[in-house]
Amino acid sequence: MNRNVLSRRVLAGTALAALALTGCSSNNEGADGGEKLSGEVKVNGSSTVAPLSEAAATFYREVQNGVNVSVGTSGTGGGFERFCKGETDISDASRPIKESEIEACEAAGIQYKELVVANDALTVVVSKDNDWADCLTVDQLKAIWEPNSKVANWNQVDPSFPDEPLKLFGPGTDSGTFDYFTDEINGEEGASRTDYTASENDNVVVQGVAGTKGGLGYFGFTYFEENADKLKALKVDGGAGCVEPSLKTAQENTYQPLSRPLFIYVSDAGVKKEQVADFVNFYIEEIDEIVLEAKYVPLTEEQKSTLQAEFDALKAAA
Amino acid sequence: MSTPTTTTETRPDSSASGNALTQRRSRPGEVAFRLAMQACLLIAFGVLAALLTWVLVKGWNRLDSRLWTEMPTGLVSRLDGAGVQSALVGTLWIISLVALICLPIGVLSAIYLEEYADNTRWYNRLLELNIQNLAGVPSIIFGILGLGIIARALGLGFTVITAAIVLSLLVLPVVIIATREAIRAVPQSIRHASYALGATKWQTVSRQVLPSAVPGIATGSILALSRAIGEAAPLIVLGAVTFITFNPDGLDSGYTALPIQIYTFITRSQSEYTELAAGAIVLLLAIVLAMNSIAIFVRNRFEKRW
């Protein structure tokens, strides 16, 4: 089975290489599609997007082992700093580029395209035995999770909730999930109460919440999907009413504030290099499998066609 | 009552003979001080033992040839066949270059300061003071310097050679200081004897002083290189925090190094990465231990006594 996947990928890769070549007349190795590329592809940026790019790099090596793809993790901001100095070809980002970064890129004459490669969503979960809570507002979540929070009982969250001790579970401070949740809910990345059961292993959170009547925890949406029989997901009210976390709401970004698109930014100078264009092509072609490996929410068909169209536009301009 | 017991335990022979010296040694203050020192030693070794036990237990399943024959992977499902080859090769590249860059510069600077410089002059004393200070500068500062000047202003980029130059600058003061100590330990009478036989200054330095100082220089240099191997902070700003599945193939190649690879593995949430990181820690410790053993061997083999 593994071999099938590989051969499919080889086929796709060579077909793409052929495509890339026909569009690139400066290359004289011929458009037979079987030729081997070489050179470097430099990727840097967000550690949240890195698992996607690393998966892409690992798959890509199986079809083009002469191309050296390096994926750095300097954070979204650090990635853009290098990207706008022309030091990298592709920038991983968990937020859109900022005004100041756009100016830096313009000043250096770097043209780029923003490509959405996956959707990220977090889910707040409670036990199946919890029959009182169905939806929490962002303010309620903040009251629960903010630093030095003294909320220890469900009736402190909302007077209509029963007298049931609140037991909290969550990811450890090293995870991107933790950074994202604290940033959106508590207003500052890394700011969180510390008296909860923290584990880097999501299974601990699943077991803990499932086995505690008053338990509450959060993690990535795909992980909830795998454990939907054991847990109940809460709707979240980000100001526009209660929204249920689902593939659809995550893809449409209506599940706010706990869903977001993830980006890669590709520079036109990068795309002019044959191996970079080929790598991005491969990235787009294999995006479903890459997203699956990195455990994010896949793109919709519409998002995928936008992705392809944006990249084609960039190639045409370069 | 406990005082005599301690004496009997530690020095059974002397207490049997009723030596006056041992009697004096068993005063409560002495015993307390001795226990305090032993406690300190225990803390130092306890931490080391705890660390070693943790990495060995955690990384036990990963301590095989996969560590150096396989590349890191970005896919959790393929971690079983993953290793740290690119980081290991990166570290070996960097450390060889550091040795090539830093040893000649360091040793020659030390010879100048020790044999030629007139240390009654203010500028030479200022130079010495600054080298001492440089040895105390936090390593991240060297990283920022490297980022601004070597990677960007000189345009060498985030490459193996940039990392090697920055780490060379970092350990240079250590090499200079160690070499000066070694040269200073060569007795003045050797130099005088050499001059008395009509040797010039250069002949004296190159044929008498330097050969006698080799054990000290070698020990100091290898210990400095061991420090460079474990250094992670400057490399973080120099672009080593990178997922790389190829080995560096030249001075201008991208790279990653073992301490950085360990750091990135540890920050991944899956426990399989922690195991791999523990395996890589054992590998790094083994390299450092091997280099330190060479230092000890060189010192014992070539040491001269006057």
Report mean pLDDT of chain B, rounded to a whole number. 86
Number of distinct beta strands of chain B: 1
Provide a count of the helices of chain B: 14
- What is the name of the CATH superfamily of the largest domain in chain B? MetI-like
Structural domains of chain A: how many: 2
CATH superfamily label of the largest domain in chain A: Periplasmic binding protein-like II
CATH topology of the largest domain in chain B, anyone?
A: MetI-like fold
Q: Report the structural category of chain A.
A: alpha/beta
How would you describe this protein?
The complex is a heterodimer of chains A (318) and B (306). Chain A has 14 helices and twelve strands. Chain A folds into two domains: 2-119 and 261-317, Periplasmic binding protein-like II (D-Maltodextrin-Binding Protein, domain 2, 3-Layer(aba) Sandwich), CATH 3.40.190; 120-251, Periplasmic binding protein-like II (D-Maltodextrin-Binding Protein, domain 2, 3-Layer(aba) Sandwich), CATH 3.40.190. Chain A has 318 residues and is of the alpha/beta class. In chain A, the strands form two sheets. In chain A, strands 1, 2, 3, 4, 6, 7, 8, 9 and 12 form a nine-stranded mixed β-sheet that branches. In chain A, strands 5-10-11 form a three-stranded mixed β-sheet. In chain A, 43% of the residues lie in helices and 20% in strands. The radius of gyration of chain A is 22 Å and the shape is elongated. In chain A, helix 1 (2-22) packs across helix 12 (274-285) and helix 2 packs across helix 13. Residues 1-8 and 10-33 of chain A have low confidence and may be disordered. The two termini of chain B are 48 Å apart. In chain B, helix 4 (28-59) crosses helix 14. Residues 1-17 of chain B have low confidence and may be disordered. The longest helix of chain B is centred in the first third of the chain and has 32 residues, at 28-59. In chain B, 35% of the residues are buried. Chain B folds into two domains: 2-62, no CATH class; 79-302, MetI-like fold, CATH 1.10.3720.10. Chain B contains 14 helices and one strand. Chain B has helices at residues 2-10, 12-17, 20-25, 28-59, 66-69, 85-116, 122-134, 139-153, 160-184, 188-196, 201-230, 233-237, 258-267, 271-302; one strand spanning 242-244. Chain B is mainly α and 306 residues long. The radius of gyration of chain B is 25 Å and the shape is globular. Chains A and B meet through strand 1, helix 2 and strand 2 of A and strand 1 and helix 13 of B.
